[in-house]
Backbone:
């Protein structure tokens, strides 16, 4: 009998308090994540970012240039777990008030 793999929660928390120009991505999980890449889609410009490893409790900043408070976009976050399995997360870039 096949037993499905348990769900894996996204190991990130996002701080939108500096939106729409900066977002902080925190590794809120209990294991390091490797090979993080960020790709921006939407209004403004967010430089592509690649980070080799993000330990639990550490964060990185996502800068978005030229986006207004009423504009939005998404960032595709790609990472690998220690077992090398790859995951993707679509992160909505909206201001703090609209994220609630």
Residues:
């Amino acid at each position: 009998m096949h037993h499905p793999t348990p769900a894996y929660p996204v190991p990130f928390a996002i701080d939108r308090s500096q939106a729409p120009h900066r977002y902080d991505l925190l590794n809120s999980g209990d294991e390091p994540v490797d090979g993080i890449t960020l790709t921006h889609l939407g209004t403004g410009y967010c430089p592509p970012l690649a980070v080799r490893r993000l330990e639990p409790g550490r964060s990185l900043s996502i800068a978005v240039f030229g986006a207004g408070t009423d504009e939005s976009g998404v960032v595709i976050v790609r990472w690998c777990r220690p077992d090398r399995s790859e995951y993707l997360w679509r992160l909505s870039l909206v201001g703090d008030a609209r994220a609630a």
Remarks:
- The chain has a mean pLDDT of 87.
- The longest strand covers residues 33-42.
